[in-house]
Amino acid sequence: MLFNSAVFVVGFLPAALGGAYLIARFFGSLAARIWLLVANAFFYSWWNPAFSILLVGSILMNFVFGSKIGKSPAGRGWLIAGLIFNLGLLAFFKYSDFLARVIGIALPFGGVELPLGISFFTFQQIMFIVDTYRYGGAEVSLLDYACFVSFFPHLIAGPIVRPNNIIPQFSNFQPFAEWKRNLEEGLEIFLLGLAKKIVLADGLAQLSDPGFAAAARHDPLTLVEAWVSLLAYGLQIYFDFSGYSDMAIGLARMFGIHFPQNFRSPYQARNISEFWKRWNVSLGSFLRDYLYIPLGGSRRGETRRIVNVMTTMLLGGLWHGAALRFILWGGLHGAFLILHGWLKRIGFRIPALLSQTITLAAVLLAWVPFRSPTFSACIEFYSGLLGLNGFTLPAVIMQHAPWLSRVAQSVDVLPYLGDARTLSLPEGVLLICVCWIGVLALPDIHRLTRPVRSLALIGSFAFTVQALFFTPFTIPFLYFQF
Questions:
Q1: Euclidean distance between the first and final Cα of the chain, in Å?
Q2: Which one, of 152, 203, 188, 198, lies nearest residue 477 by Cα?
Q3: Which spans in 255-291 are helix H?
Q4: H or E segment at 189?
Q5: Which residues are identified as catalytic?
Q6: Number of C-alpha atoms within 13 angstroms, CB side, residue 175?
Q7: DSSP character for 267?
Q8: Domain segments of the chain: what residues?
């Protein structure tokens, strides 16, 4: 069940939320938590009921690990066992096919289907057992722990929230308290996130998808087609994932649960380190606190810092998917972070605007392997970005700017932009320009004043309703594949 589907918005959400309010009001917190757990199970089972058994088993095992770590003198041994269990589970479902292809063997049981959200609920539980070992285990009931892991707003694609921040909120779960305020604020954030997804991200996909599909077929992308596709994809993935995160934050707020912000205008970052403090904040902080720092961070010299940075980013790329393109994406970001660290150490300064431009260009160029379905498609796309396949423009543009004929070739249509209509390029460029101005110049929705946020909601509402109820199919979130 997708947050951006009509069945979720007008069916599941009102039932789950209304039930939580009424049950909490008349039967108390315990009954409301049981209701919420049932709603979570129904939400996850909607996709594939069989994998609900996996989710339940993972929750039970990790609750046992957490209990043993907190109470047993052999806590370290239980922690290691818990890490092996979680990472082994993730490796089997997410990486066994990839490893079999690399080794060149056929799996006896065929392909392995990837359970929805396994990366996210596994990381949540790794945080739980590691924090229990580090800081000691407070008394946590199985019900509260199960609600924390399976809470449907963050179950499928995050954000990866800290157990010590969220579990206490379930222990004192009172969704009926301040329900009007929570409903108003949460619904507002949810609807703005929904608009980001189904109006902006899905609209921009019509400009980015044809270009990357052409590269996958090894069709030659020209300069304009490649750059329009890339600029559109940079916006698409931002609005898609930040939209999902906003929807998750808004949904949690409706239930009286407060999630931290997960995106802080990342494309406004002035260096690559700042970018990772703004983009997918929960994943970045997880990689820092549970991988980079335990590896030694920057405390053991420059060589060790370089190794730790690259290891962290390569594993971060591999976490996104079992493919060389994700490893390449992580490696590029690791190289960017290492270079930034070197420049910072020697005191080399770049003017703020230039630094932001370089950072944005690096991030965009790194999106190419992230989005390309194969490594060869990635190379084909880079060829287009470099202009190796030529520079062509629609004839309608050349007629109004004949001087462009000195550098560009005239064609009737550019086949890999939108639906190949002659006006798709001007319309697409206008949409891309407006969106880029917004993400580079405006604050994110969480820093907007209430009047401005309400105005944005009013302005987008009609488009959102139209896209929600009248599009022929629902487009999944990009991060569902991870």
A1: 16
A2: 198
A3: 272-278, 281-287
A4: helix 179-195
A5: 320
A6: 28
A7: G
A8: 6-176, 184-481
Identify which of 149, 54, 66, 127 has the alpha carbon closest to the alpha carbon of residue 92. 54
Inter-axis angle of helices 50-71 and 29-45, nearest 10 = 130
H helices of 72-160, where? Answer: 75-103, 118-135, 142-150, 152-155
Which of 333, 316, 287, 288 has its CA nearest to residue 482? 316
- Read off the pLDDT of residues 164-221 as tens digits, 9 standing for 90 and up: 999 999 999 998 888 999 999 999 999 999 999 999 999 899 889 989 999 999 998 8
For residue 175, say if its preceding peptide bond is cis, omega within 30 degrees of 0: no
- Cα 108–Cα 110–Cα 116 angle in degrees, nearest 5: 130
Q: For residue 453, count other CB atoms closer than 10 A to its CB.
A: 17
Sign of CA dihedral 281, 165, 163, 116: negative
Helix (H, G, I), strand (E, B) or coil at 444: coil
Q: What is the pTM of this model?
A: 0.91
The pLDDT value recorded for residue 75 is 85
Length of the chain: 482
What's the rounded Cα separation, in Å, for the pair 47 and 51? Answer: 9
At 173 the pLDDT is 92
Structure tokens at 267: 């494309």
Phi and psi torsions of 387, nearest 5°: 80, 15
Three-state DSSP at 410 gives: strand
Tokens 């994700």 label which residue? 326
Closest-CA residue to 155 (of 34, 251, 276, 254)? 251
What are all long-range contacts of 399-402, with beta carbons under 8 Å and residues at least 24 apart?
none
Tokens representing 384 are 């287009």
- Give the angle 214-218-222 at the CA atoms, nearest 5°: 60
pLDDT at residue 425, as a whole number: 67
Q: What is the DSSP letter of 394?
A: E
Q: What are φ and ψ of residue 320, in 5° steps?
A: -70, -25
Model pLDDT, residue 104: 64
CA atoms within a 13 Å half-sphere pointing along the CA-CB vector of 138: 12
CB 376 within 8 A of CB 217: no
Paired tokens of 271: 């260096």
Residues in the chain where the model's pLDDT stays below 50: 419-423
